[in-house]
Structures are given as C-alpha cells and as structure tokens.
Amino acid sequence: MTRVNELLKIRQLLQRRRREILTVSLGTHRELAALKEQEKDPEYEEGAQSELADYTLSSLVESQRREIMLIDAALRRMDEGVFGECVDCGIEIPLDRLEAMPFAIRCEEDATSHELETRGGRMATPSL
Q1: pLDDT of res. 128
Q2: Alpha-carbon distances, residue 86 vs 8, 66, 110, 117 (angstroms)
Q3: What is the DSSP string of the chain?
C-alpha cells in the first residue's frame, strides 16, 4: 500500500476515534450533570464517594477534550498537506510511528531530543 493510502487509512481511524470520543463524552457529561443535580445525604462516606465520582468523571472529560484537540490538529495537518512530516527536521515520519501515534509531529530522534531538552536532561552515555 502506498504512503498516501496509508495516510488516508490513518485519517479514517482518526475520524472514527473522534466520533467515538464525542459519543462517549456526551454520556460522560450527562453522568456528571446527573451527579451534580442529585441531592446528597450529608453522610461523609457518601459525600466522599460522590466527590471521587465527580473527580473521575471530570478527569475523563478533560482527557477526552485533549484527545479531540490532538485529533483535530492532526486532521488540520492532513488538510494542509504536512501530516507525517517532522516539524523539526522535515523528514517523513515512518508509517509505523504514525500508526502507533497518529498525533506525532516529530520523528523518533527529534522527539527524544525534544523530550530531553524539555526535561533539561541529557542522554545517558555508556559507562566504560
């Protein structure tokens, strides 16, 4: 299969994943709203369980929002014809990397360098 066909396949996977997230997110928002509307018994244990459920659902909503943003950015890069190009060196990111991480904007080498720079670390040198 050609790279163009593989990229189209990745686009379809991203679009399908986006639809799935939006469907799940709608249910999550409903659950969160129902939880907040529900009158609570003043018992501590029940309140703690409610807070935990609220925290968990809120975290899920935020995670879904971030993934939608990454998908939208990847789809924009596809529309602009730059999807699959490393933003640092400009080479084509290997298809196996894009299939595993469709949001990747850097080749593996540049991603590692970027991560090390971000953390302020250095690559480990082998000891002699």
Answers
A1: 45
A2: 18, 21, 8, 17
A3: --HHHHHHHHHHHHHHHHHHHHHHHHHHHHHHHHHHHSPPPS-HHHHHHHHHHHHHHHHHHHHHHHHHHHHHHHHHHHHHT-TTB-TTT-PBPPHHHHHH-TT--S-HHHHHHHHHHHHT--PPPPP-
Structure tokens given for 11: 């686009």
In angstroms, the CA 128 to CA 121 distance is 21
pTM: 0.74
Contact 21, 64 (CB under 8 A): yes
Give the pair of three-digit tokens for residue 112: 């590692």
